[in-house]
Amino acid sequence: MQKITIDIFTDVLCVWAYSAQIRFDQLKIDFGDKLELRYRYIPIFAAAKQRIAKAWKDKGGFEGFNQSLRETAQHWEHVELHPRIWLDNVPESSSVPHLYLKAIQALEKEGMIASDPLPQHGNRSLCEAYAWRMRCSFFAEARNIGEIRTLDHIAESLGIPVVPVHEMLDNGTAHATLHEDLEARDQFMVPGSPTLVFNEGRQRLYGNVGYRIIEANIRELLSDKQSGLASWC
Hints:
Elements: E1 4-10, H1 15-31, E2 35-41, H2 48-55, H3 61-73, H4 95-109, H5 126-139, H6 148-157, H7 162-170, H8 173-187, E3 195-198, E4 203-206, H9 211-223
Parallel strand pairs: 1-2
Antiparallel strand pairs: 1-3, 3-4
Helix pairs in contact: 4-5, 4-7, 4-8
């Protein structure tokens, strides 16, 4: 059976990636075992406060950013945005949650936590469920996911063992795999979050891309045995 891999590059503090998760979940429903989603994390908000303060200096600062996000998301029915987003409990950096996610991915790779889709988590794997719960904690609940204690609490709520996660952080495994994501970002010239990369880097979809566009690219690759050489899509 032909199978393709999509590398999904996001920053957990990116609202567009938060909104796009419903599309990634639908891909798994529609394509099942024909598709592998590989989640990678890039530091768009590695210096979150500095980034917003600089970009929104003349547009109302954090209050202006908050208002812009709420206006953007007011018609989104599939996700919730807290009215005080980016005003209360603002994370210093997305690098901390990214490292935590890479630690959990490492546990999954080593078979220390289950990798199968779980019905109680919407057929997401435990790792995927954690990433989603983390994003919801920030965007819907305005919790500071830049703090280890918050990340630990989310892990414990899902039954993920915290001690092995910390071991992956302490021994450098999480840092090494996050570095691999950065190397892949540079290799594929990823412009931002979210970006989908497939066909071994020959195709990229960046930003708020509709589901049907993503689906059309995947179906083209699955139906064309020569897609490794060229694709009409």
